[in-house]
Amino acid sequence: MELLMQRALKLNAAFAHWPGTALDRIQRGACLRTYVKGEVVPSNDRDPRYGSMLVIVSGYLRLQRVINGKRACTVGILGPGRVWRSRCNDARSTQLRYEQVAQEPTVLIHVASEALSGVLAQFPVLWRDLGAVMLKQQRELIETIVEQTRGTAVERLASLLLRFQDQYGSDTVGTGAGALRVRLSQEDLGALAQLCRQTANEALGRLQELGVIQVDYSSVSVKDPAALRCAAGRSDVVSAPPVPARSGGFGVRSGFAPVAGKPLPNDAAPRAADTVRQGG
Q1: Where are the beta strands (DSSP E) in 79-218?
Q2: Is the Cβ–Cβ distance between 243 and 256 less than 8 Å?
Q3: Taking each helix axis from N to C terminus, what angle separates 2-11 and 20-28, rounded to the nearest 10 degrees?
């Protein structure tokens, strides 16, 4: 168990460059736990046995906004290699907070806040990597929330799928096409895009008819990333420079912008653009 935690922390960008002594200290106050699909991950305000920093080893967490004790909406998905600070309730946060739910069987490391704070107080330079990872995730969540409120149904879902393909997609021979590793039902995608199930199904069906995506049971595959960018309303689809492959965390992620100046492989992108102009 300790070896698994050590390996998981070393593979995480937030802790990859931490010295062994610092990792040993936070490991002593950490615990490893598996959650089944749909299980709510406890915050330290609910159960003092669990720390305030969650490190995702495998699986995915669904972040849900809770307002006045009621689940309001889903704001994002966090996968392997990500970290999340589970904040406790107080007088200022009782009206709005976030709840973490396992999207599928998920393994997490709960890091005790006292141990983490002690290490960071002694070695302030370690904030650099941890802070960079958390700021990047915060930016991605903000962008996801913004995308939930603008554009047609087709544009919202296309933007969402592009983001997940970049973060959690498998790449097919460097093309950017492939299946999303996270299992999302049409209802899940609708919730993430702030659409009712019927509207989400219609928009997904339209993208599938255009040959942009393939929807199966609890899974989505991106067949034509260029056309998906066009459907998302991104006009730079043809002139965008190629995005180099990036590796890190628990898998290989590749960008999928087409090579500048090259024609699109088929007419899916123009047809997707026509769909967006017609109102999604």
Answers
A1: 83-85, 96-102, 106-111, 178-179, 213-216
A2: yes
A3: 130
Domain boundaries, the chain: 2-126, 147-277
Give the SS3 label for residue 254: coil
For every one of its 280 residues, what pLDDT tens digit does the chain have, with 9 covering 90 and above?
A: 778 888 899 999 999 999 999 999 999 878 899 999 999 998 654 455 555 789 999 999 998 887 776 766 788 889 898 998 876 544 455 556 778 999 999 999 999 888 898 999 999 999 999 999 999 888 888 888 887 778 889 999 988 888 888 877 765 545 556 667 667 788 888 888 888 888 989 999 999 898 888 887 777 888 888 888 888 886 443 333 333 333 333 333 333 333 333 343 444 444 444 544 444 4
Burial of 109 (0-12, 13-18, 19+ CB in 10 A): buried
Q: Which amino acid does the sequence have at 255? A: G
Secondary structure (3-state) at 78:
strand
User: Which fold is adopted by the domain 147-277?
Assistant: Arc Repressor Mutant, subunit A (1.10.10)
**269 near 233, Cβ under 8 Å?**
no
Closest CA to 52 of 91, 2, 108, 96: 108
Per DSSP, 125 falls in state: G
| CATH 3.90.1640.10 assigned to 2-126 | no
From residue 108, how far is each of 62, 81, 114, 236 by CA, in Å?
13, 10, 18, 38
